[in-house]
# Entry
Amino acid sequence: MGLERGVTANDVVIDRYTSLWARMYVPSCSGKLPLLVYFHGGGFCVGSASWSCYNEFLSSLASKANCVIISVNYRLAPENRLPAAYEDGFTTLMWVKQQALNGSSEHKWWLKLCNLSSIYLAGDSAGANIAYNVATRLGSSGSSESTILRPLSLKGTILIQPFFGGEALTWSEKYNNQPPNSALTLSAADAYWRLSLPPGATRDHPWCNPLANGAAARLRDLRLPAMMVCVSEMDILKDRNLEFCSALIRAGKRVETVMHNGVGHAFQLLHNSQLSQPRTHDMMSRIKAFINE
# Structure
């Protein structure tokens, strides 16, 4: 399975009705550890928690950052258009809460290691979009997020090259030089949005463009935890990611922006340049610092 040494991985069923499942990564550590709820990338249309590139990346992250990771195998478009993936993200959090409240013996092997007041939502590309949209759902709900999640407490969100879009193209979407075998091109992004948004929606739909149609002004009212956003210099999404970070900071949110130079979209999974490995190690050490603040 390509697992990091000392990390145990097991699959768990979250919802039999929707075939929702997740892969747990548990490092051999003592003491209580943060829990990362992680969503894989793939434009909402492809990808799986069982892919070997995620086994490798997430088992390594669990080991290096000393955290338990639950990698969610959410429903994919076009069979299940958005908000299905967001619903699956929310359902997963509620499932973790239920196991914690029940003192589940079946899940004791990972639950007993988790610090339930240190939960993080994380993901890359479309998975980062899911993490953000689940966080905003919690932050805009009528009752406070702490009440819905209790005894869990959401401490932060980690967005790796978040997949957003918009009707008007940014400079990097038009002109950024892509590394060979890029994981994301403009035509692929267009296809993914066409297949995953509700029929008839434009790319200024809030799920795709969180800053469109005056949405940026409403960010101030959202209760969002601390956020870390990882941006890649050669990614077509670079400008959109930086604009997103600036809007959040202007709205008074706590945002740590991390730029990885010389690499493209999903470099941490593809190892498609000699810069990928050191940049991936840097990403993991920054995530470790962020979740252990």
User: Anything to note?
Assistant: Residues 74 and 203 are 22 Å apart (CA to CA). The two ends are 31 Å apart (CA to CA).
